[in-house]
Amino acid sequence: LAQLYGPLNSLGYIYRSINQSLVDTEKLLKLLAEPSDVTDKPNAPDLIVTDGEIEFQDVHFSYDGRGTALRGISFKVPKGSSVALVGESGAGKSTILRLLYRFYDLGEGEGRILIDGQDIRDVTQSSLRKAIGVVPQDSVLFNASIAYNIGYGKFGASPDEVEAAAMSAQMHDRIMSFPDGYETKVGERGIRLSGGEKQRIAIARTLLKNPPILLLDEATSALDTSTEKDIQKALQNLVQGRSSLSIAHRLSTIASADLILVLQNGQVVEQGTHKELVAQDGVFASMWADQVSASEEPAASVRSSVKK
Ligand code: ATP
User: Fold this and answer.
1) In this prediction, what percent of the chain has a pLDDT beyond 90?
2) DSSP classification of residue 247
3) DSSP H helical segments within the chain, as ranges?
4) Residue whose CA lies nearest to ligand 1 atom number 12
5) Residue 136 near residue 202, CB atoms below 8 Å
6) If you average pLDDT over every residue of the chain, what do you get?
7) Packing angle between helix 283-294 and helix 296-307, nearest 10 degrees?
8) Could you tell me where this protein is found in the cell (predicted)?
9) What is the pLDDT confidence band of residue 8, given thresholds at 50, 70 and 90?
10) Ligand 1, residues 34, 63, 100, 137: which to mutate, most atoms within 8 A of Cβ?
11) What is the pTM of this model?
12) From atom 2 of ligand 1, which residue's Cα is the shortest distance away?
């Protein structure tokens, strides 16, 4: 049995690598941890990404045919821009990300979701998922070395590529402080990483995957200021030049998003930049005021955003 272990293990590695886009989802994503009953149409072509532009056109969706999760959502994420979703629990933020990842297909009369003009129902799921990188709230790591956990983003990644990704994800120095550097094992039988460190490993992995489209789910738990800064920098490097759709809980982290959509009860009730929304004095402005009064930290951002 022990003799079989080596070959089986490397077969497993190859299998995992080939199926990377699917396994990524199924194993790593709490956000998207839902059974998928979507099937490709016969002879469906692959998605062809030119710009990575995303468009939701009047999307309606219900999980069970009774409650309504989305009621007429329309928006565009132009090439390379960042769109953030905010709103109270149950407003429909995760549903938007799940639909874009095609965990459910829209039915007749429920609107359309397009990437570079192609209806995502008409293309293969594998090509769609290859084009999308996901950084979930809680990144799950394998019980393996840090190098493996990062390199998983790209089949056959070289050690130099792994290191470059870790640098861009603001994780290289931290990794070098571990006893075996990149060969340090993480997980149950290795060192334990903090939530912020795990997230930076997930960012490094996604940098290696190099997808044109990104889905980000910001961690709800508060991080200390220096970790927060490192993650923000890592995310900046990741979203650079890519179309991104993120769920934000801390409004201070999306001050520079190109567009913020405020969701309430499955509808977009306000949209604009941070500055525009604060000036509107509506739902977003009151959410912002609540977060500012709840913490000292965003208060500093208020002052800086007012100054701009
Ligand atoms: P949170 O910030 O708490 O994650 P959210 O804004 O992401 O909330 P969604 O998870 O998109 O909200 O939920 C939108 C609506 O759909 C809610 O009314 C929710 O109860 C419902 N819903 C979400 N997932 C399912 C599911 N798997 N089955 C049935 N209803 C669901």
Assistant:
1) 65
2) E
3) 2-18, 20-28, 93-100, 125-130, 146-151, 159-168, 172-176, 195-209, 225-239, 274-280, 283-294, 296-307
4) 90
5) yes
6) 85
7) 130
8) Membrane
9) very low
10) 63
11) 0.84
12) 89
